[in-house]
Design brief:
13 helices, 5 domains, alpha+beta, about 15% helix, Alpha-Beta Plaits, globular, Rossmann fold
Length: about 800
Amino acid sequence: MIFKPGASFIITITLLLFSSLFFFTGFANAQEKKIGNKVPPGFVTKMNSIPAPEKRLFRIMVNGNEPTLPLQLKKFNPYKIAAYEMFSFYMISATTGELADSVLSLPIVLFAEDGIRIAKEENQVNNLDLGTNKINTVHALYPQLNGDGLTVSVKENLPDTNDIDFAGRYIATQLSSPVVSSHATNMATMIAGAGNSWYTGKGAAWASKITSSDFANLLPDANNVLQQYNITVQNHSYGVGIENFYGGDAVAYDASLISNPTLSSIFSSGNSGVLTSTLGTYAGIPGVANITGSFKMAKNIITAGATDSFGNVSLQSSRGPAFDGRVKPDILAFGIDGSSGSAALVSGVSLLLQQQYKKLQGTLPANDLIKAVLLNSADDAGNKEVDFVNGFGNLNALNAVRTIEAGRYWSGTVSANDTQQFSLSIPTGINKVKITLVWNDPPATVNAVKALVNDLDLELISTTTNETWKPWVLNSFPHIDSLKQLATRKKDSINNVEQVTLDNPAAGNYQVSVKGYNISSSSQAFYIAYQFDAAEVFEWQFPTSNDPVFSSAVNTLRWHSSYSSATGKLYYSIDNGATWQLIDAAVDLAKGYYNWQTPTVTNNALLRMTGGSRQVISDTFLISTRPKTGVGFNCPDSFLIYWNKLPLVNNYRLYRLGSRYMEPILQTTDSFAVLQKNTNTTLYYAVAPVIAGKEGVRSYTFNYSLQGIDCYIKSFFAALVNNTSELSLSLGTRYNINKIVLEKFDGTTFKPLQQLVNITNPLVNFVDNSLTKGLNIYRIKLELAGGGSVLFPGRKCILF
């Protein structure tokens, strides 16, 4: 056959266009080689927008921990970024065509995705309310629970390691980002801040150690590093945009939590609650399935959504379901500025649960037990039981701690078609029983249509009537009406969390049954947590005796009530209960909170709630305002700090920063203190009012050396006004000053010009009418009680 040159030329150009510009065609051919499931949804469309000759970074997942890479892959200069027990991750540089033709076709390559995925912090957190999730109540009732002995990792940028709320507790590692961010500082503060700066700087687990890991690497940290630094909780408050698929990072996190059985990984759900997914099963359905990151599709992690101070889910908080219909988010927590803070609070409470368990059992708890306890103890929110907006409800730290304390949990193991049962005795007077099953499910195949591998079934069975109650299951059909439906009781075949509840259960004996319905491995371990909600119970939760309550301000009172009466009468007393003042005669008890405008007083107080014939009185707490502080002088050997006297307060407690925490150093009836520098080496101090042993709102902690005060004198200025020199002196304090002397330079020495005794005002003015032509130089001399003196450098005034 003879080809014409023209025809040959046309054919050549056509082939080049075909193979270079249309990656999709190369990918379609690769589908025939069964590699079509090795990339994320939408990946082909995204790659088609990239010019074919352009090299791009791709992250690939390969089979094996230390695999022998084939020559076809080595030519792309693979760089290992992570290795786990069953697989490894590499970065390569290739064109889209090379990826399709030479990389994805290799059996050893399990998955490939864009190597340029940038994590974004999910909003700042500017407010903190530990009362919303009962963390303040845990601090009051369980003061020994503070996270001491545990370490939390904040995976994002670097917190400010000089922040006094982390003093003596930050651990530097090779994993940390070089970039310091206020967001990371806020997250670390909400988790483990010591409250040294002020009460809003106190986190949930305020004594735990803190470290950080750079979120430039979206994969789990290496097992040996996590274990080297004894990290038991890692917080992830970031996202990369809506990704509805089970990617390589989700596989890696599921594997990581199995390899590190005492590590809990907590993720923010995201702040994309109003956005619509463009890919996956739920594409085009507004306001659902908008969790921000494929790594959040992992099964064994905990994903936290955001609420306001009253437990209402935030509009911006990302919604479920997960890509395969699983429940997301798992839990909600306070996060007024986004789900970042929600994850941080769940992380902090997880540390408290680990500490409580270790105190009782001598060892750290399994992460699936911590997850079971957190989800089981959460307060129901939104639709009854579980839904795709609120998950299993609002974090309740107090319920969770009490579950661990009371040992209301079981562990077990089942094989395929095996059943394990646990006896449960339900006492009288119970409003509701709640039981939650959780297991760490093995990683599914990357990009699996359904992530669940091992399917367990939970049931509650009455041994008296043989009645059976199955777990609550949501309708995951991709239609908005279906996704909003209430949960129904039936078999669950997609979640590795199952929950059974029963309202007003008959007292008696029950069986909790776990069946191994479909298990691919030899067996599957699991944990169950359970809780009894008692009827006719009322408990104050804010304020406790430790909580700050501000005078002449709106303070949110909080309680738990299961009273049958709908309303109660709310009172307060400021005379130890001798008399009571009515606040509201018809408080909604079920609401659980009340905004109280406190009186303009500084005093100890009590609250009383009356419901029906019962009344419950709160802890004694102190209503006060924050003292305002200042520095009187900062001299070479000593310094003076002062504060305003508060009405009816005769005692004040002075604090200084120790190696880790604020420490009381003295209690005084004065409104100032002079401290010697040789025995007070720290720069940070604060003061709190004290009435009858109760401490009120502590002042901000301040660095006395940064207040613009020298040795007594704030400022000294000279100005020429109509041929006279007007001099203004501002003192930090009048304390210990017998005389102020204005001195003037006569060309040889400074001589007294004017003096002032009986100083009543820290602002002093002098006038010099006897100016000489040219330069006039002045200085201040303070004569102190006891014979000492302070000289302040000269000030100049020029007369022409």
